Amino acid sequence: MTAVTHADRLAMLVIGTNHRQASLDFREKVAFVPDEVPGFLLRACTALDSSDVFMLSTCNRTELYAVHPGLDSAASRVRDLLVEFKAIDATRDAQKFYEYHGRNAVEQLFRVAAGVDSQALGEVQILQQVKDAYEVSLQANALGVVGERLLAAAIRCGKRARSETAISAGAMSVGFAAVSLAHKVFGDFAPRTAVVLGAGATGTLVAGHLREHGIGRLLIVNRTLERAQRLAAQSGGEAFALSDLDQALAAADFVISSTASPHPLIDAGRVRHAMRARQQRTFLLVDIGVPRDVEPAVRGIDNVFLHDVDGLQIMIQQTLVRRRREVPQVERIVSQEVQHFLDWYNGMRAAPVIKELRGHLELLRDQEVERHSSHLAPEQRAAVEQVTRALLNKMLHRPTHFLREASAQGEIGLRRIEVARELFGLNEPPPADAPDPADDPNGAQ
Amino acid sequence: MHWAIRFAATMLPILYGLVGLAYVLIFFRNDPVARRAAPRALLVTLSLHVLYLGLLGFELRRIPIATSFESLSALALALGIAYLVQERRSGTPYTGFVFIPLVWLCQTISSAFANSTMAVSPLLQNPLFGLHIATALLGYAAFAVSAIFGVLYVLLYHSLKGDRFGIVYEHLPPLEVLGGMNLRAAGFGLVFLTLAILVGALWSVQVVPRFWADPKVWLSLLAWAVYATCFIFRYVGGWRGTRVAYFTIAGWLLIVFTMLAANRLFPSFHDFRL
User: Fold this and answer.
1) Are A282 and B32 a contacting pair at CB < 8 A?
2) Minimum distance, in Å, between the CA of residue B156 and any CA atom of chain A
3) Is the pTM of this model over 0.80?
4) Quick check: A311 contacting B, CB < 8 Å?
């Protein structure tokens, strides 16, 4: 184990790979399926002699975080473990991994949780994946005080990024864009009826999105009725044959179509007819089929909204532009949360010193009282005990205050704590691992 | 007390201006500081507004809505409260950029031109007058809310038609929600305007000869007819989409004309200055 001085920075490291660093082939190779993670975490804990390890493994990244005082040696051991576990070529694939230490490692985790390190900027799934990593590590007994606090802070950072900025606003896929368009027109889906025209892969995806968003009634229309019935059974909808399309259009609030038909299935006449049947209520058609399923002339009908793939692409591009504009604001939140975490961490580092200092002086006081106790009557000894204890408390008041303040002063503060250790002869290094929660500076007197 | 009234009358346009600016920043820049500050600042400003009208009423020994400019201040307050309630209920501050500047405009005109020392007709001592004015103001406020939602509906409608997914698309509530608010607020307005016309007629019969010949009465009836027609066509004729929105906007413009300009263009018993 590498020795560290007390002024060392946060003893944390991350080794990982992501979509920027490596190809999909490599990411697939090093990705961990959920069942593999607990076993690997236990091996990492054993190899590092640490109880503060957690892993984030998604389709776009695999990252292992560890709290360890000997960062270089720990990094080397983590790499060896990965090489062994995933059968990677240590030399050839070395550059496909990144490695951050201390504050940079914390920043990496917080940026990931906030969605600014994702391939789809601002995606929301990553925050759930961080929460899952927290649970898995907790259940594997691989999480210590620092790791637990760090993950909780990362999750808070991710939530703040999404609630205080628009980093996750808008749609980034055609299917989701279609559903979000329907939301923008109709709001709550519960009293609404949707038609999914086409029961292929895209139709299945859209039906799933609509069901997730609580659509009231889902009508699946397909040229082959059997396929419509299969998808209807799967998504809790009602199946219609293509010959019943007019009936479905009259009942629907919106249609999302994605058939492979070479000709438009819905023309302006059909929509006008449907509008009369539905008393001119607002009607939305989202056509994500290529070639198009809906005749462009439909766009000219009052109170009918038609959007095709080009329109949805515009929406996705604008979402991306808006999300990019939010990045500086998210980075500010990340910085605040990182600093907040480091303040806590440094505070925890001062706590053992305060405790040790008090213990050290208490020992000296005990020894001196004991040395002279033979000359003292019991009541005299009690008085001396009382006086020396009160004196010690008064003498310790200022240094305790100094150490607590220093703990919140970053690197300079840590150096001051180091000076205090030397000044009072506290030569034993503090525990290399996470400090005991009982050592909270607010509780150490 | 007079200096406090003058102070509040000066401060209200400034405060509404700042709050309006904050809501503009929220809509166009989604500014986080403005998002936190604007609702609180609006609440403080509305409280000051209530205090202002209370002090004014206390000093004048009457309800301070006897003149058009006094009524504008009460209308601004009613609009501000209606917006704040709507924001709390919907949880979205993005429509404030239209509401609050309108509140600011009403209060600024009122603060600039209202003369609190002006004597008013003793006709106003009748308790029916208070009910007439209160229902008329509630009706006007509801029509203003309806018109604002009408404007927002039209904006979003054309954004959706034209594949424009900018700020309007991103920040406004769903189209059907805007349409629903547009219609509901117009419904409230119609009910209150009907009451105001009925109570006003009852009161005028007692104190004003030939009240039915007053142009403001006719303009109010015309506004009532516009909204009533809109509802008939909506529910019987199947009107949907922008037609209802445009009608409610036109109705509101007629109301504004009735409130502000009619007294100046035509002789009217609705002018209560002495």
Assistant:
1) no
2) 9
3) no
4) yes
pLDDT at position A412, please? 72
Q: What is the pLDDT of residues A310-319, one digit of tens each?
A: 989 888 888 8
Check whether A442 has a pLDDT greater than 70: no
Residue-level pLDDT at A134: 94
- Cβ–Cβ under 8 Å, residues A336 and A171: no
Provide the shortest C-alpha distance from residue B242 to chain A (in Å): 8
Cβ separation A164–B175 shorter than 8 A: no
Would the CB atoms of A329 and B32 count as touching at under 8 Å?
A: yes
Sequence letter at residue B192 = F
Interchain contact A70–B (C-beta under 8 A): no
**Rounded-to-integer distance, Cα B192 and Cα B143, Å:** 10
Which residue from B170, B240, B242 is facing A281, i.e. has the nearest CB?
B240
Rounded-to-10 torsion of CA A326, A328, A332, A334: 70
Q: With an 8 Å Cβ cutoff, are B163 and A302 in contact?
A: no
Interchain CB distance below 8 Å, B175 and A282: yes
Q: Which residues of A are catalytic?
A: 59
Q: Kindly list the residues from chain A whose CB atom is less than 8 angstroms away from the CB atom of residue B233.
A: none
- Are the C-beta atoms of residues A87 and A95 closer than 8 Å to each other? no
The reported pLDDT for the residue numbered B126 is: 67
**pLDDT at residue A57 tops 80:** yes
The yes-or-no verdict on residue A257 having pLDDT over 70 is yes
Place of tokens 């290529």: A290
Q: Which residues of A touch B163 (CB under 8 A)?
A: 307, 310-311, 314-315
Question: A322 at the B interface (CB within 8 A)?
Answer: yes
Say what the pLDDT of residue B170 is: 86
- Where does B119-274 sit in CATH, by number? 1.20.120
What is the C-alpha separation between B105 and B99, in angstroms, rounded? 10
This complex has an ipTM of 0.81
- Check CB contact of B169 with chain A, cutoff 8 Å: yes
Residue with tokens 């006081």: A365
Partners of A238 in beta bridges? A219
**Would you state the pLDDT for residue B157?**
96
Scan for tokens 């909808």, then name that residue.
Answer: A237
The structural domains of chain B, with segments of one domain joined by +, span 1-118, 119-274
